[in-house]
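Technical annex B. To support the medicinal chemistry partners, we prepared a structural model of the target in complex with beta-D-glucopyranose, based solely on the information shown next.
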Amino acid sequence: MDDGLLDRRMLLTATLGLAAGMTFPAAARTASERIDALLARMTIEEKAGQLSCFNDDVRPVDAVFNPVVNPRSAAAMLAEVRAGRVGMLFNGYGVAGARKAQEAALASRLGIPLVFAADVIHGCRTTFPIPLAEAAAFDPDLSERACRAIAREASAAGLHWTFAPVVDIARDQRWGRVAEGAGEDLLLNRLLAAARVRGFQGDDLRANDALLATAKHFAGYSAVTGGMEYGAVDMSEATLRELFLPPFAAAFKAGAGATIASFTTLNGIPVTANHWLLTRVLREEMGFTGVCVSDYDADRELVAHGVAENEADAAKLAITAGIDMSMQSGLYNRHLPALVAAGRVPMSMIDRSVRRVLALKEALGLFDNPFRSLDVRVERRAVKREATQKLARDVATRAIVLLRNDGDLLPLPRRDTRIALIGPFAADRANTGGPWTFAGRTQDAISIEAGIRALLADPDALTVEPGCAIEAAIPGGIERAVALARASDVVLLAIGESAAMSGEANSRVSITVPAPQQALAEALAATGKPIVVLLRHGRALALEGAIRDASALLATWFLGEQTGTAIADILFGVCEPTGRLPVSFPFSTGQQPWSYDRPATGRPAPASQPMEGGRSHWRDAPDRALYAFGSGLSYTRFTLSNVKAPAEVLHDQPLVIQAEVTNTGTRPGTAFVRTDLHIRIGEASPIRRMAGFTHVHVEPKKSVIANVLIPSDRIHYTISAPRGDHSRDLKLTVMLNGLDKYSADITVSNH
Ligand code: BGC
């Protein structure tokens, strides 16, 4: 590796180090004495028990996603808990069951309390938009508030710990779990990782409403070859460090107390057995002091990976690599005692992990109050509060992205317009939540139809027709839909992916709208009626034909239970669209993986002639996205002027950019001002990346000054691989609503 990249690595290592900001778990001296005393009394079996976690068979929810491994009845699980063979239960719901399980734990020989975890990914009982949708708001404060509200509700239902946030940067939309994270950009992932951790955990982990956060999946999970779930990841160490680790560092710095190891291999070695990644990088370099959990059954899967001879060997590899807790396989309970007795695993290694688990319980206050968050009165009061539902609605509205609006078709008038609502999602509620709805209930969801009807002056002006099912034609469906379209003034076409088409284990080779829906769109387009596409999706899609070319297009993701209200608010202009794409929409699936921040090619295709010969493009698609990261329109128009950027910035000072934003239209609106930075001349090809952004609300015919602040650490990030003495030369680009408007050179000076 050459010096430039080595420099870059060294700098990033410094950035990843957590010493200064680390907040978890600050075990006080008395606490560590308590842990020492407990450890001294524990048998190896009890230690293995603390390092084992299982599906909560005492109070299971239906949403259990994974294959069935080691199922137990409630009674059998309670017996295991009483025997001291369980450290944590996950994916259970409800206070009554949790109290029963906790009583069983307290009745075990040492009375070590259980900790209750769950996949509270985007809501508990109240279903919020999927995290990718929430990311479209580009608003860390909103994400933090959403996670706080979710934590209040989840903790009231008897939970202490969430397996969220997902901080895997997602650049391949074929991968189904794009839905769970913050999209393709490094800065947005870092900011939202920290915001979500702060929101879940709150100010005080010991508080009844604090939910311990898990930054997952460590690391590189989203980069599986071909986007295929659980597959192989092959990437340079520089890319791992530059792109995939920093969101974890941000989450740990914000205090995340846990991580889950990736199911995948990394450069040939399964992460669950990867000592370099889980110990050298995670612990020694990044300074993480929390608990590292295996993913579901992943230690046992080391046998299927072909690196472990048998289950005992798999347990040894996992604990040696740095997996503190074994999830669901039961391998640690079954094999750690014998492995220690045979001298194959040192007791000190077991103790190290047990200490971490006990410290986590201590940090949550469970030793002092094992029944924290287990109060039925709080459960009654705090679950499905009106304020939580209102926040879910705000997030849903902020998540919607207006991608196209020919002739200002939107917003629609609320009277005197005959509206045809067509498509398999028109009246649907089952697919509003998307993947990982955990304890959310379909009956709580508001369909698009219900949301629209509630806003119309004459609710009968709306007629609904499915036209087709999600992945199949309906006999006569297209004919009925076409007849309805002909009798209407405007068609709203609610199409896209089902909840089961994205999320875990739902990779797709073709990220298009399913063929029966495409056929419906083509038939409707032939009527010549204006079409507004309401797209439902857990990833960026490759839009084709009549869907791509519709008059108006709204990216509406999976918005959770407030789907219908949020979409109606945007459609009729009750709220202005303010969302921006956190993932680029490609022209075609074949462009994946894709992101806006790529090294330059020596042969760029000119924007005016994207398919010019001898240039970088595919034969059948240009070298750009259909809608790039950050795209999104308003119902009004803006201009940018008077940009003020300093010619020089001190290396330890923030860079402040000012620009005047004028609303030239007739409606109020919110403009999105973004700044990108890159070094001018690099050792490696410099990469232009988002370095700051802000939103400004502007009334019609008024101007507002937008201030974008870029802290010095982000500037240093940018200049990590300069060539020679070019570390001082930066290129700044200022963008308005996703379009380049201004650029300038900036020098970084030392004094
Ligand atoms: C997923 C994790 C999840 C775990 C427990 C696994 O299949 O990869 O993200 O936290 O299951 O439900």
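Notes passed to the chemistry partners:
The pocket of beta-D-glucopyranose is lined by residues 66, 91, 119, 163, 216, 260, 295-296, 504 (CB under 6 Å).
The first strand starts at residue 52 and ends at 55.
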